[in-house]
Every structure is written in structure tokens, then in C-alpha cells.
Write a structure and sequence with these properties.
- The chain is α/β, with parallel strands linked by helices.
- Helices cover about 40% and strands about 20% of the residues.
- It has 2 domains: about 1-175, Rossmann fold, CATH 3.40.50.620; about 185-275, Pantoate--beta-alanine Ligase, Chain: A,domain 2.
- The strands form 2 sheets. Strands 1-4-3-2-5-6 form a 6-stranded parallel β-sheet, with helices on both faces. A 3-stranded antiparallel β-sheet has the order 7-8-9, covered by helices on one side.
- Helix 6 packs across helix 7 and helix 9 (about 200-215) packs antiparallel against helix 10.
- Bound molecules: pantoate (PAF).
- Pantoate binds near residues 29, 61, 132, 150 and 153.
């Protein structure tokens, strides 16, 4: 496995792979890899002969008071994990390589951003869309792989690819969880012992909400109230909890069809997100 730090270098690698008829699978990450990322690499490997993993902590998607400086980083560990997972190349650019000057323009996301992380992290998805657009232009893969844990991000990237006619297939892969249900996340490393032992209650709350829906509750506000009640028993604070139509992410009071229960919960040093997608039973 090669590590390439420049745009010119990664383009060369991809040109060679494509010239020998290999198809390209791409897994964009911000590093500090965990089993969730490895499942994306595995999925890419199943479908493609040549797999590129990018590791870049994108400053554009962090707000001024967010954890850009504290975001966990360990390149040696990431390199080893990517190699063992079978990646062919790791693209590891510096911020200067990606953004040599202030970006003269950015993608401004207008749909799907007035809910969930879009409201609690203003500008976040503009930063995500901008870097993903750049990465897709640099790597030009046949398919790119993203986790469903970031369901809003996935929906926005799918919209972007549609809106700009980018010739790539976007694949969403299931959330990978610890044995106790906590969704794997690079930020879990910042949970205290006590927070880590409490945190599985987030997924339990989502499962409980999904059960309420399965057993016939279709009032969004009632479900949200039930979940708020549960989450208020934790030691952190609720950033948001919502139930929205999926994949449109529209807020409707009377739920029907596919819906997403989504939450963000802030512990002392780690803000965690998770979601659960469920089909409302009965008449539409
Ligand atoms: O999901 C992430 O790790 C990031 O948002 C992404 C897609 C790599 C863009 O920086």
C-alpha cells in the first residue's frame, strides 16, 4: 500500500490503475480509523479492484468553537489499519495541499440542512460538501462509500452528486456498533469511563422509539417527548432528538412511510450522533 500526499501523486496512481482496467472504490475519512471505516474499505474492496482511502481532517467542516484541534489523529495507526484492511493507496494531503489559498468559492447546501446537525452546526454541511466535491474531482472514483451513521451527510452527498451530475455511485453502508450497541465513532475515545458506560442508552432510546413506531404510535411530537424524557436521565445534554421523513428529512407531525429517528448528545468532550431508520406500519 502506498501513501500519497499530493494531488498530483494520487492522480498518477489512479491513472495507472484505470489504464490497467481496474475500477476505483473510494473511502473518504478524517482518520482515526475504527471498524466502521474498515467495513467501508471492505465493501469497496468487494466491488472494486483498486481502493483509495483518504485521510484528511477537513477544517472547513468545523465551526469556530468545535473540536478541530482536538480531533483525534494517529496516522501511523491509520496507515497500518488501512494496509491490513487491503487499501491500495492512502491519500493523506496536508491542509495546504487541499486549500493552498482561501477557497474562492464553496458549495452552499440549501436542502436537508434546516434540521438535525444542519441547525446545531451551522455551515458544517457546506464544509463537508465542499471537501467531498474536491475529493471526488481529485480521485474520480467509480463509487464512494459513506457510513449510514452520518445519515444526513449521506443524504446531502447523494443530493450533491445528483445536482451536479457527478459520475460516481454513492454507497451507504450500515452503522457498525460496539457489542453494547454504542455506534463506533472516532470521538468515542473522548468519553470518560462513566460516560462510556452510560452511552449505550442513546441507541437503546432509538430502539425504544422505533418500537413505539412499530407498535402504532405515529405522532412525531409524542415520540420526541418520550425520547427526550429518556435522554434527560443521562449525564450529558441533548443537542437534538427528532423524527423525520426519510430520506427527504422533512418534518411531518403524522409519521408515515420510512422515517429516521436521529439524535445528537453532548458529553463533556465528545458530541455523539446516532440514528435508526424504521418503516411506519399500517395505512399511509
Ligand atoms: O464523515 C467524515 O468522516 C467526513 O465528514 C468526510 C465525509 C470524510 C468529509 O470530510
Amino acid at each position: 500500500m502506498k501513501v500519497v500526499e499530493t494531488i498530483e501523486g494520487i492522480r498518477k496512481e489512479i491513472e495507472i490503475a484505470k489504464s490497467t482496467g481496474q475500477s476505483i472504490g473510494f473511502v473518504p475519512t478524517m482518520g482515526y480509523l475504527h471498524e466502521g471505516h474498515l467495513s467501508l474499505i471492505n465493501a469497496a474492496k468487494k466491488d472494486h479492484q483498486f481502493v483509495v482511502v483518504s485521510i484528511f481532517v477537513n477544517p472547513l467542516q468545523f465551526g469556530p468553537n468545535e473540536d478541530l484541534d482536538r480531533y483525534p489523529r494517529d496516522f501511523e495507526r491509520d496507515e497500518k489499519m488501512a494496509r491490513e484492511a487491503g487499501a491500495d493507496v492512502v491519500f493523506y494531503p496536508s491542509a495546504n495541499e487541499m486549500y493552498p489559498t482561501n477557497m474562492p468559492m464553496m458549495i452552499h447546501v440549501t436542502s436537508g440542512v434546516h434540521v438535525l446537525c444542519g441547525t446545531s452546526r451551522p455551515g458544517h454541511f457546506d464544509g463537508v460538501a465542499t471537501v467531498v466535491m474536491k475529493l471526488l474531482q481529485i480521485v474520480q472514483p467509480h463509487a464512494a462509500y459513506f457510513g449510514q451513521k452520518d445519515a444526513q451527510q449521506l443524504a446531502i452527498i447523494m443530493n450533491m452528486v445528483d445536482a451536479f451530475n457527478i459520475p460516481v455511485t454513492i454507497k451507504g453502508c450500515p452503522t457498525i456498533r460496539e457489542e453494547d450497541g454504542l455506534a463506533k465513532s472516532s470521538r468515542n475515545v473522548y468519553l470518560s469511563k462513566q460516560e462510556r458506560s452510560e452511552a449505550p442508552f442513546l441507541y437503546e432510546a432509538l430502539c425504544y422509539g422505533a418500537d413505539l413506531i412499530r407498535s402504532g404510535m405515529t405522532s412525531r411530537s409524542k415520540i420526541v417527548d418520550e425520547l427526550k424524557q429518556r435522554l434527560s436521565q443521562g449525564s450529558g445534554s441533548i443537542d437534538y432528538i427528532d423524527v423525520l421523513a426519510y430520506p427527504s428529512l422533512e418534518r411531518v407531525e403524522q409519521l408515515n412511510g420510512k422515517v429516521i429517528l436521529a439524535l445528537a448528545y453532548a458529553y463533556d468532550k465528545a458530541r455523539l450522533i446516532d440514528n435508526y431508520i424504521v418503516e411506519v406500519q399500517g395505512e399511509k
